[in-house]
Amino acid sequence: MTTTALDDRELPPEAAREHTEPVDDPFDRDVLPAPKDASRRLLGSLIRPYRARMAVAAVVLLAQQAAVQAGPLLVAYAIDSAVPALREDDNGPLIAVAVAYFLCAVGGGGFQALFIRLTARLNQGILLELRGRIYRHAQALSLDFHDRYTSGRLISRATSDVQSLRELLNEGLQQLLMIMVSIVYIGGLLFYLDVGLGVAAVVSFVPLWFLVRSYRRRSAERFSRRSTAIAAVIVKFTETVGGIRPVQAFRRERANDEAFERLNRTHERVNGDTILEMGRFIVLSRCVAAITVAAIVLWGAQRVASGELALGALAAGALYIRRLYDPLDQFAMVLNNYQSAVASLDKISGLLAQRPDVPEPERPVRLPERAAGTPGREVVFDDVRFAYRTGGEVLPAFRMTLAAGETTALVGATGAGKSTLVKLLARFYDPSEGRVLLDGTDLRDLTTAELRRGVVMVTQEAFLFSGTVAENIAIGKPDATRAEIEEAARAIGAHDFIAALPDGYDTDVRKRGGRISAGQRQLVAFARVLLADPAVVILDEATSSLDIPGEKAVQEAMETVLRGRTAVLIAHRLSTVEIADRVLVMEAGRVVEDGHPADLVAGTGRFSDLHRAWRESLV
């Protein structure tokens, strides 16, 4: 067992932070950096599995638009052919027109209903996959990411941003496809009726193209700001609800109300800007459309009078040109949905582009098998150095060996580096330099699943998920039988209080385990660890939030859990240290004392002073 602190000239963490220049942290921005075209590739990967369905939907849409756009053509035929035939007592053409018009109406409605049904299923599949990706990716990202990126932003990505995509896919995309296909159909039919009408229609779209281009550029910024604003509202709301106890304890309601009101008004203002921008586009586009239609009708009427154009062709052409401009209001809504979805997709793709700081190994290895009866595994910190991204160095380079089966207690003031050290052992972070070895195997060479089977951490506040007591204990071993779960609970000393619950092991502990006390939650967490049977156990201040009776029960359970395992304890209460084989006193990231608890108490060092102060506090 060796411990060597190196480079005594290193500044303590507080001083190091003071000397660290502020850096531009992308996590302070709402849009995370992403590779070029990440949004396009994300959308392509979501759509790719549904290409066959999209092809079927496209065929149905073509059939629907063919039926719908046949109407004005039938009107032209009726005016130019069917009506003159009536003068000769020939009702056949007019009846044929009426039947064809009826069939087109029925067919158009039927094909549209089928198209909506196909696209609805397709869109729901895409959104289901996207939400699943966000959820899975959030769980896979490293602790460093979650320390820096607020949970409110994650919730915004999975809710409001996905909602923006839903509005585009479920509503806007259908309308956009119909508009685009109708424009192609109408353009072709206008050229079929009369080349001059077709050219006039094409020329009339030039001012509209500039109008749409201007609207897209101006609205893109506004929708990005709107997405950021709603994310800020969600972040503030989540933060307030999550910290409702200190909010009420320190009477922060009014201050929080004022802060939330500012964020809410910012969102209202930005959202209003997007609506005003859409209103400007609709007004201008209607003016252009009205002027264009009037000019084409006047010009066409002169050509009819001169005999250059048939009256039916002019009537059909006017109907088609009107149909070209009728969807402009819908097109503005589609553009709104599109800009909102693009802004949201950029933020989602930025999130999904983040890679874990503790990636899976390319060539994973397995831990060597432990011989029967072998107590735990050896842990070695080999020239380990660590610094957080946003601060100075926390752990200067050091070497340390924890023998297999040894219980080591880490003691020291807040900020001494204890929690950072155990997070390296649990591989929530990787060292900036050096290696952490488990029985000679670098933790970076182990898969997450392999590492979690060997190393388990119990935090200060035992987190229980909504569900039954049995389900929470079985997290340590998902395939455990009820008998194994109860056996683990008995070994820990938790069986009696669990059996006394309303439904015993089937009692729902509710949100965060709020139905049972802190000490009982900690016992459930220990039963979970015992069932998992890891070789290395990390306890991060496991008794610091408990009262004396609760602490005593947890300490007895702790001794059961640690027996025959390598253990690292972070201890603020020195009563916890008494069960340790070895104590490391840390200060500014260094181990300043190392020895057996009794030897250190008998000495004159810092642990002796801490122990004396603790004993005096009990009197």
Helix content: 55-70%
How confident is the prediction overall: mean pLDDT? Answer: 82
Radius of gyration based on Cα positions: 35 Å
Number of domains: 2
Derived from helix and strand composition plus strand pairing, the structural class reads alpha/beta
What is the level 1 CATH name of the largest domain?
Mainly Alpha
Major beta-sheet overview: 6 strands, mixed
Number of helices: 21
What does this protein structure show overall?
- By secondary structure, the chain is α/β, with parallel strands linked by helices.
- The protein has two domains: 37-352, Up-down Bundle (ABC transporter transmembrane region fold), CATH 1.20.1560; 379-618, Rossmann fold (3-Layer(aba) Sandwich), CATH 3.40.50.300.
- The protein has 21 helices and eleven strands.
- It has a six-stranded mixed β-sheet, sandwiched between helices. Strands 1-3-2-5-6 form a five-stranded antiparallel β-sheet.
- It is elongated, with a radius of gyration of 35 Å.
List the helices and strands and how they pair.
Blueprint: E1 3-5, H1 13-18, H2 38-47, H3 51-86, H4 92-140, H5 143-148, H6 151-193, H7 195-242, H8 244-249, H9 253-305, H10 311-325, H11 328-352, E2 379-387, E3 393-402, E4 407-411, H12 418-425, E5 433-438, E6 441-442, H13 448-454, E7 455-458, H14 469-473, H15 482-492, H16 495-499, H17 518-532, E8 536-540, H18 548-562, E9 566-570, H19 574-577, E10 582-587, E11 590-595, H20 597-602, H21 606-618
Parallel strand pairs: 4-9, 4-10, 7-8, 8-9
Antiparallel strand pairs: 1-3, 2-3, 2-5, 5-6, 10-11
List keywords for this structure.
619 residues; alpha/beta; Rossmann fold; 2 domains; five-stranded antiparallel sheet; 21 helices; 11 strands; 10% strand; elongated; disordered N terminus
